[in-house]
Amino acid sequence: MLEIENLMVFFENALALNGLNLTVQQGEVVAVIGSNSAGKTTLLNAVAGLVNDMRINSQRRGGKRISTYGHIYFKGEDIIDWTPRQRVLNGIVLSRERHPIFQESSVLENLKIAGYLRKRSEISNSLAYIFRLFPALKALKRRVAGFLSGGEQQMLAIAMALVARPALLLLDEPLLGLSPHMQATVMQAVVELKQFSGITVLICEQFAQPVLPIIDRGYVLENGMLTFSGTGAELIGNPEIHAAYFGRLAEDGVDGQN
Ligand SMILES: Nc1ncnc2c1ncn2[C@@H]1O[C@H](COP(=O)(O)OP(=O)(O)O)[C@@H](O)[C@H]1O
Ligand SMILES: [Mg+2]
């Protein structure tokens, strides 16, 4: 479904992604594990079309020079020149790092805002489907989003991405700031997405431990380069990966109430 070939992204002279090759098959849950600054957000932003946007805006303002090379194929089509909007309309939907939500609006209002590209009737279908998938969110739908716990806010952020009816859902650090218990809940939601919706998922994370048990395949990203790939079990069984990426479980977990 997604094929990335030799992707390179430069910010001025700094290489954020260095000749990256990655595939995601239809129906798979694939993870990219990497520590801070490895290039995770740049990778997902490139797939979502945001790196292109940054490049064009930056060029227009005479700002930082961003250059990209390589190809991204979605369902066999080269999408490198597609706008972010075209990508969303074709099913490529990004749930961004640190989940920007409207703090003063209710859960329901946030979900409706997220559906701005879609018809009203489609949105109400999506909402019914999201509330079946995340019953906890249904119970909170009138709650002001800013008063939700960190885990509930992350659930809302994923749900906001689901309103756009993704075929390929991109999750950028969905576990950031969550307690181990909330991390497990969010990962369980991903398992349910795969089982009940058939949505293909690409997750970027620095916390390997909660992610690896639920994925089909994973990659390790270091300094913009993929250094290892394998099934979830192969990654769990690799002593180097264990040493480097385990024990990172909720080390900055701030969501203590969950
Ligand atoms: N807009 C930008 N301008 C300059 N450098 C950037 C920009 N975005 C990311 N980078 C650099 O690219 C590298 C990868 O960053 P990023 O993709 O955000 O990593 P991660 O999400 O894994 O923490 C880092 O060295 C970062 O400093
Ligand atoms: Mg990031």
From TrEMBL:
GO terms for biological process: L-amino acid transport. Keywords: Amino-acid transport, ATP-binding, Nucleotide-binding, Transport. SMART domains: AAA. PROSITE patterns: ABC_TRANSPORTER_1, ABC_TRANSPORTER_2. InterPro entries: AAA+_ATPase, ABC_transporter-like_ATP-bd, ABC_transporter-like_CS, BCAA_Transport_ATP-bd_LivF, P-loop_NTPase. Residues 2-248 form the ABC transporter domain. GO terms for molecular function: ATP binding; ATP hydrolysis activity; branched-chain amino acid transmembrane transporter activity. It comes from the Bacteria. Belongs to the ABC transporter superfamily. This is ABC transporter ATP-binding protein. It comes from Desulfosarcina ovata subsp. ovata. The lineage of its organism: Bacteria, Pseudomonadati, Thermodesulfobacteriota, Desulfobacteria, Desulfobacterales.
